[in-house]
Write a structure and sequence with these properties.
EC number: 4.2.1.1
Number of helices: 7
CATH superfamily: Alpha carbonic anhydrase
Helix content: 10-25%
Number of strands: 16
Bound molecules: zinc ion
InterPro entries: CA_dom, CA_dom_sf, Carbonic_anhydrase_a-class, Carbonic_anhydrase_a-class_CS
Radius of gyration: 18 Å
Catalytic activity: hydrogencarbonate + H(+) = CO2 + H2O
Structural class: alpha+beta
Strand content: 25-35%
Largest sheet: 13 strands, mixed
Domain Alpha-carbonic anhydrase: 7-261
Cofactor: Zn(2+)
């Protein structure tokens, strides 16, 4: 995970040092509750949380900026406080507001995600970073109990472009500093929002602050190889392509990982509304993505 870093020397230290050496430079990175971790369905503790609630999640054009952090592309809503996307429910201890989202990807499609799911690494992972609504900004929330929550979305390779990603991908070649971009963040979430892992972890880039409440969905968002290539063309400050910007897996150290087993599937995504009508059409694995996107968009 990336967080806003404004001091150039900090950036230099982070990217000059391999993640293996982070703990020497940033002691928190050697903590006992670090992220990412290997998620396993079979060993996760089943739990039933109330449904997640998404508020103000339909922000679109002109309300977000994309920033090249040198390590990823980071998108931040630029909305008045009352209109910022918020989440609550789903076992979260309180209400959180979105401060940014960003991506981790691999040089090849057999890697890129930070978390692994049942032993598999996916080509890209998106992190939506939230802070408690009582905090002014991200820095104010650092190191506070229950202050930071991150939603993680895994991307799965698809034969077809995912048109929902295009507004972001279109600005990637020009993301030198900050660019306005159209985005509809709710459409970027996976289809089934009732099935997810929950555990306590950390930020995945220095200073690796703990604690962070992690929610990792186990349904996927499709992305094509062509679209992944456009992420890989993004250059960092050293004019070298940003690739493999994921941290190695961290030890669980006895932490409990929960897997939400909702009583009924809870999904506010427009696709799910459509999907409900076409049972038993099988959407897992994206059979029919090409066919269905015409309906969905
Ligand atoms: Zn991240």
């Amino acid at each position: 995970m990336i967080f806003s870093i404004h001091k150039y020397y900090t950036i230099t230290l982070i990217f000059a040092a391999s993640p293996k050496n982070w703990a020497e430079l940033f002691p928190s990175c050697g903590g006992e509750s670090q992220s990412p971790i290997a998620l396993k369905s079979s060993s996760a503790t089943p739990i039933t949380y109330p449904p997640l609630e998404f508020i103000n999640f339909d922000f679109t054009y002109g309300s977000a900026t994309a920033l090249n952090t040198g390590h990823s592309v980071q998108v931040s809503p630029t909305l008045p406080d009352g209109e910022v996307p918020k989440v609550r429910g789903g076992g979260l201890p309180k209400e959180y507001k979105l401060v940014q989202f960003h991506f981790h990807w691999g040089r090849k499609s057999n890697r890129g995600s930070e978390h692994t799911l049942d032993g598999k690494r996916y080509p890209m992972e998106m992190h939506l970073v939230f802070i408690g609504t009582e905090y002014k900004d991200f820095n104010a929330a650092l190191n506070k109990t229950n202050a930071i929550a991150v939603f993680s979305v895994l991307f799965k390779k698809s034969k077809f472009d995912n048109p929902i990603l295009n507004p972001l991908i279109d600005v990637l070649p020009d993301v030198g500093s900050e660019d306005e971009m159209p985005v509809h963040v709710f459409k970027l979430l996976p289809w089934d929002l009732s099935s997810f892992f929950r555990y306590n972890g950390s930020l995945t880039t220095p200073l690796c602050n703990e604690p962070v409440i992690w929610t990792v969905f186990d349904s996927f968002v499709p992305i094509s190889e062509r679209q992944l290539e456009l992420y890989r063309e993004l250059e960092g400050f050293d004019e070298v392509n940003i690739e493999d910007n994921f941290r190695p897996l961290q030890d669980l150290n006895g932490r409990t990982v929960y897997k939400n087993k909702a009583k009924s599937r809870y999904c506010r995504h427009p696709f799910c509304v459509f999907y409900e009508k076409i049972q038993p059409f099988k959407y897992k694995g994206y059979y029919g993505w090409k066919r269905l996107k015409n309906y969905y968009l």
